[in-house]
Amino acid sequence: MTRAAVLSAGSWGTTFAKVLADAGTEVTLHARRPELAAAITADRENADYLPGIRLPDGITATADPAQALDGADLVVLSIPSQTLRENLAGWAPHIPAQATLLSLMKGIELGSTRRMSEVVCEVTGAAPERVAVLSGPNLAREIAEEQPAATVVACTDPDRLEALQAACHTRYFRPYTNPDLVGCELGGAVKNVIALAAGVAEGLGFGDNTRASLITRGLAETARLGQALGADPLTFAGLAGLGDLVATCSSPLSRNRTFGEHLGRGMSLEETVAATKQTAEGVKSCRSVLDLARAHGVEVPITEAVVRVCHDGESPVQMVREIMSREAKPE
Ligand SMILES: NC(=O)C1=CN([C@@H]2O[C@H](COP(=O)(O)OP(=O)(O)OC[C@H]3O[C@@H](n4cnc5c(N)ncnc54)[C@H](O)[C@@H]3O)[C@@H](O)[C@H]2O)C=CC1
Ligand SMILES: O=C(CO)COP(=O)(O)O
Description:
By secondary structure, the protein is an alpha/beta fold. The chain has 2 domains: about 5-180, 3-Layer(aba) Sandwich (Rossmann fold), CATH 3.40.50; about 180-325, N-(1-d-carboxylethyl)-l-norvaline Dehydrogenase, domain 2 (Orthogonal Bundle). Helix content is about 50%, strand content about 10%. The protein has helices at about 10-20, 35-45, 65-70, 85-90, 115-125, 140-145, 160-165, 180-205, 210-230, 240-250, 255-265, 270-275, 280-295, 300-310, 315-325, and strands at about 5, 25-30, 60, 75, 100-105, 130-135, 150-155, 175-180. The protein has an 8-stranded mixed β-sheet, with helices on both faces. α2 links the parallel β2 and β3 (about 60). It is globular and about 55 Å long. About 55% of the residues are buried. The structure holds 1,4-dihydronicotinamide adenine dinucleotide and 1,3-dihydroxyacetonephosphate. 1,3-dihydroxyacetonephosphate binds near residues 106, 137, 192, 248 and 255.
């Protein structure tokens, strides 16, 4: 892969543009606001999302999606999941016919319960083997600072997968391949929901036992749902499953965990939404994950609890009481 278009220039899109450029790929980054695109090109910095990080010379930025997509053999999608369908419909006519379409997004569409790769296929008409996902313990700021991290790229076409792995392999970013696209994608979406619960626990003042219990039982419900959707259960023991769950549930950098922490500390939902400037996917996706689980007859008690706290006005204290008083059962 030699030329990538990254849409758009938020925290992760900008960071991943840097990864691609550091791996030797020419990158055009799409920013919605022309002034941000101009500032990125002129200053080599995205001061809105990654202040203090110098962007490589291999990145140019534009506010024109057609210009960003012109000649791209890799199209990277990194916007809030619930906005993908609408945005992609506008971008689709400009996407080169053979380009690989890579989703960095970690959400499930509300209403349709589609994974992002499914939305990409539906909107663009691309064959499923052209669509890939990247998921793992990848907090943007740490990667932008070139702290070592690993990730997983998944695609059903082995040639595209290998090319993708090479296109984003740098001295600080190590991608593994996995053919299980469904499992990788689901792991990324559900961990955001579990991280909300871990944040609530943090906000209530609970410690490591509580977090470890949530991570482990969260992984169990992710794997149950994954299996029902045809994922490989082993994927959930890897970077896109346990790896991402541990990082997100533990890190103060996580927007989902921070959102939950605010609720746990007693902030109202409205105050928390107002205080959250970046995308916390789990707040919306908890509902679609629950819908998906119900459609497949899978029990997801932590996800249910997160929906009650984020949407039905249940208090964090009551949430913990309900999780802990569920019927006792074998592990
Ligand atoms: N930030 C991180 O550490 C990581 C984020 N992700 C995932 O990447 C995706 C993007 O997240 P971030 O870059 O972190 O979010 P962000 O909030 O930092 O940036 C969002 C980007 O989307 C654009 N955007 C917002 N609303 C839009 C709309 N209605 N239409 C078009 N564009 C819109 C913004 O202008 C911005 O460029 C999410 O699915 C997230 O779960 C995945 C791994 C790491
Ligand atoms: O996906 C992430 C880390 O892998 C980022 O998590 P947040 O979206 O909660 O910040």
